[in-house]
Amino acid sequence: MSRKEELVLPADKIAVIEEFFPGDGAYALNGDIRSARVGYKIIDSVLRKISVIHPHGKPFIPKTGMIVLAVVNTVKEDIAFVDVLADKDGKLFSGKYSGVVHLSQASHTYIKNLEEAFKPGDIIIAKILSHKTPPLQLSTKHPTLGVVAAACSKCGELLVRKDSTTLVCPRCGNIEKRKLASNYMIKTRIV
Ligand SMILES: [Zn+2]
Fold it and tell me: Tell me: the pLDDT tens digits for 140-174?
C-alpha cells in the first residue's frame, strides 16, 4: 500500500474501475472511482483497492521495524497472508495493509509447514522487515512474536494456552498447534 500526497475532494475522480476496487472513502460511479471525502488517496496494490483517508494530522502508516498486530487471512504451506491493522499498542493504522509471513520468517525453531503455525482468523503480533514494496514483509521469529489470540477450528471458542506450542479448547477439548507469542493472551486454568 502506498500513499499519494495529492489532496482529493468529494466527487473527485481518483481511478477507474478497471484499475482498482473502491475502498473506504471511495465509491464507483459510471465506471469511475470517486472520492467520498476530503483526504489523501491510499492504494493497496495487492488487493487492488483505492481508499481516501481523512487528512487529520499525519496518516499513521506501518513502517520497517515496527511491531504490529495483524489478522491472518489465508495460510499456505510456505506463506501466510495477513491484514496489518494496528501497532503493538492497538493504535489503528490509516487503512488496512496487506502483509505476508514467509515460512523462513515464522519461527526460530524448525517448522515444516506454515499451516502448523497459523490459521485464518488468528491474531498475530509481528515485526515489519520491510515496507518498501507491498505487501509488508513480516517476521514472527522472536519468542515474543506470533499468535496472541486464536479460536478453536472446531467450535469457535477462544483457545487457551497449554504449553509453548499448544492450545486447548476450554469448550470441546480440541488441541491445536500454533507459533505462539510468549504473551499469548489466555493461559489455561487447567493444571
Ligand atoms: Zn472447541
Answer: 999 999 999 999 999 999 999 999 999 999 999 99
Q: What distance in angstroms lies between residue 30's CA and the mean position of ligand 1's atoms?
A: 47
- On whether the CB atoms of residues 23 and 36 are closer than 8 A, the answer is no
Dist. CA 151 → ligand 1 center (Å) = 8
Q: Which domains does the chain have, with CATH numbers?
A: 2-53 (2.40.50.100), 67-147 (2.40.50.140)
Rounded to the nearest angstrom, the distance between the alpha carbon of 110 and the centre of ligand 1 is: 27
Residue 41 CA to residue 45 CA, distance in Å, equals 12
| Phi, psi (deg, nearest 5) at residue 123 | -100, 125
Prediction pTM value: 0.71
Distance separating alpha carbons of residues 185 and 101, to the nearest angstrom = 21
Between 129 and 131, where is the model more confident?
Answer: 129
Residues with CB under 5 Å of ion ligand 1 are 152, 154-155, 157, 169, 171-172, 174
